[in-house]
Design a protein that fits this description.
Blueprint lengths: L2 H4 L18 E4 L6 H15 L8 E4 L6 H10 L6 E6 H8 L11 E17 L7 H9 L5 E4 L6 H13 L8 E4 L3 H9 L5 E5 H9 L3 E6 L24 E9 L4 H16 L1 H10 L6 E2 L3 H19 L4
Parallel strand pairs: 1-2, 1-3, 5-6, 5-7
Antiparallel strand pairs: 3-9, 4-7, 4-8, 4-9, 4-10
């Protein structure tokens, strides 16, 4: 398994000074409440609060196709819109790697950067009989009727998290594990709380409210060390699993904007990353520091896509 997929906590910084303010719209390619929605609303709010845009950022939720509807919309209808930013993540890269967007490729947009990593989590309802990751994986191994909901399509990053854990447990027929892909983490966790699935596979930011309200219990966070602020959630690593999977949070913009506009968006995203407001948002929502902004981010994403494709073939998600 490629190291860059298992551990995505790394950072480089890139900054561009002296950019003009822009009116802005941020498309969240999912329903309200999920990770992409969080990205748009938090980054959008901070952009305005720190004076990087001169009016509040409009957030548009555009669920469909696991992000494919928004991707197609940007590529085909708004390819030169200088005021548009779109929430992106490792899930975006995964779907591009698996050709889930109907032939769309990463070079049809421009990836601006990522400024936070959302740790993967496995959660169950508060009244679930399963109290550890090994309890849950053991139930799958013994043939119990176990199912998961996630905010990615089947074969997407949320699904891959479960398959990686199952593979480590020694479960042979990992493709038989039941998985329901829905539009965003909020819908996925609702499936689990409502008793329609055994567990939810997603990201820390998607479960914080539910965790604090006591509606779910987190069996594992998929980081190397426990997440600050959520020290009571054990890692999969300390439970005997090597799987580390984090979901970077960032933005892409239309392909046909100018280099100048692209660099301006890079500078604005870097300003958000450097702000106290963003540091507070990360701490409040269980995000790990992760900053890659600027012109080299697209090539980094290309590398991640290649690694994800290889991992998907290894696990058998794609042929």
């Amino acid at each position: 398994m490629n190291k860059s997929i298992r551990t995505l906590i790394a950072g480089v910084a890139f900054s561009v000074a002296g950019s003009a303010t822009l009116a802005a719209e941020c498309i969240a390619p999912a329903n309200p409440g999920g990770g992409w929605d969080f990205t748009c609303r938090q980054i959008g709010k901070i952009l305005y609060d720190i004076g990087q845009v001169d009016s509040p950022v409009q957030v548009t939720n555009m669920a469909g196709g696991g992000g494919g509807l928004a991707y197609s919309h940007v590529v085909n209808e708004r390819s030169d819109d200088v005021d548009l930013i779109v929430a992106a993540s490792q899930a975006t890269a995964t779907r591009l790697a698996q050709n889930a967007y109907g032939g769309a490729t990463a070079d049809q947009v421009r990836f601006v950067g990522a400024i936070g990593a959302d740790p993967g989590v496995i959660v169950v309802a508060a009244d679930s009989p399963y109290n550890s990751l090994d309890d849950l994986m053991g139930a799958i191994q013994s043939g119990e009727d176990i199912s998961f909901a996630g905010g990615s399509a089947a074969g997407g990053f949320d699904h891959l998290k479960v398959l990686m854990l199952a593979k480590e447990k020694g479960i042979e027929d990992i493709r038989s594990i039941k998985y329901i892909g829905v539009d965003g983490g909020a819908d996925a966790i609702t499936q689990t709380i409502g008793g329609f699935t055994t567990g939810m596979t997603g990201d820390m930011s998607e479960i914080v409210g539910f965790l604090k309200s006591g509606e779910v219990k987190a069996l594992a966070v998929l980081t190397e060390e426990r997440v600050p602020g959520f020290e009571d959630v054990p890692t999969a690593v300390e439970q005997g699993y090597e799987t580390v999977a984090v979901n970077w949070r960032g933005l892409y913009v239309p392909k046909n904007i100018s280099d100048e506009r692209f660099e301006e968006w890079g500078a604005k995203l870097q300003a958000v990353a450097d702000s106290d407001e963003w540091k507070e948002a990360m701490a409040a929502n269980g995000l790990a520091p992760f900053t890659k902004v600027g012109g080299d981010f697209q090539s980094w994403v290309d590398g991640v896509i290649a690694d994800t494709e290889a991992l998907s073939r290894e696990i058998g998600v794609i042929q």
